[in-house]
Amino acid sequence: MKTQLKVPLLLLCLFLLTHSCFEDNDDNTISANQINDFIWKGMNLFYLYKDNVPDLANDRFSTTGEYADYLNSFSQPEEFFESLIYQRENVDHYSWIVDDYIALEQFLVGCSVINGMEFSLLKAPNSTNNVIGIVRLVVHGSDAENKGIKRGDIFYEVNGVQLYYNSETDNNFSLFNSSSYTIALGDYNDMGTQDPSDDRIDPKNESITLNKFEFCEDPIHDTNIFTVGTKKVGYILYNGFNPDYDSELNAIFGDFKSNAIDALIVDLRYNPGGSVNSAILLASMITGQFTGEIFSTEEWNSEFQQAIESENPEYLINRFVNNDEGSSLNSLNLDKVYILATNYSASASELVINSLDPYVDVIHIGENTEGKYQASITLYDSDDFTREGVNPSHAYAMQPLIFKSLNSVGYTDYNNGLTPDISLEEDYLNLGVLGNENEPLLAAALFEIENASGKLSDIKSKQRLQLQLLEDSNYLSPIRRGMYVDKPLPSELLNKFLFE
Fold first, then answer.
1. Cys-Cys crosslink for 330: which of 142, 200, 235, 253, Cβ 3.0 to 4.6 Å?
2. Does residue 209 sit in the same domain as residue 301?
3. What pTM does this model have?
């Protein structure tokens, strides 16, 4: 069957026109116009919210001159890309563009220039503008770990300057952009009272200089097997859905399986997402009894959705599997799983929770998740937007949202995140040691498995000092990991859109 949905002939002519205009450029420079042409065509074809952006309509331009004038009205590709985003503040927080696709590719597999200290920035006690940082995670093998930084450490100065915040545009958080900076450590002093009005930060007279290096993070931060009464409980702290570590993940589940664990805790509290395929593999390792069943489905923009449904509807379905490229999965066949998740848990983390929910009892402990149910893909400036045949004149690439995920019963659009079954916020002043059985979130899961309701109530009832969260180190980065597609685009369908 031939689809009637095509990029208009005008666009093909424009592609040929703009492509030829820049082939003979002897000094190999490139204008924003050519990059903008790539941006518009890619967004027009793939963008999830195309229907909501009038400038992306197929009939937006009646002549090549009108289209060229439109492209030329934007001098910077980043500005042009941003003009095509649908409701950046309320809907699409996650599409982005970069001028170096090699760095982007490295970032998507967990490699970036970091010092390994992940932290939250909060208003200092009893201060209008002063800010403190509290370390929530230290990446294994990083400079921060080598320098002795620990989860729960407090700092208040960077390069001798007090951190401050007046507004989103009036703060000095740019101090963290440097490749090297020095933090001054402090202690939280409650003055021995229950009254927070006299709380303060006392200097420790200790400073640590942190340096950023190119670093590839192993997303498997910690694993263990705990004994709770007569039960063996597997635990894994997993910080990113990185396909390069799928075999390592499978080996860990093999260890869980050989130890005949009775319950499993998957800690996704700081996992921002990643590969959709890795999410399918993790869910399939947790279960195993649903091979071939629907894990999730995809909803693209209306044109792509209709075309895929007509030509290859199976492409829209992701199914539970029993192997990873021919290697058998170490599946546990569990009918219940305990997942630790917070508002730092996003995209592929939420995909696992949401997609498992119709099949097994998912006990979500922690906080509402971020609320990202859309996936993106890397688009390059080539004939078919893939890496092959990429335009050598520039290194721009886009990572736009292209579909939203639904579980097998159609649940999606969880804009406010997924709600926990057991609500428990992390206490910034009592974070505990990740992976330790006394760490509050992990302890809560172990008590739930033990059916120790009294101990669980004790954890939930502990008073937590409320400090206003202002920013997080993950959000200070110009690009963030999210849920991305790592299966090939439907080439036959794409050819129909582009060339028929």
1. 253
2. no
3. 0.90
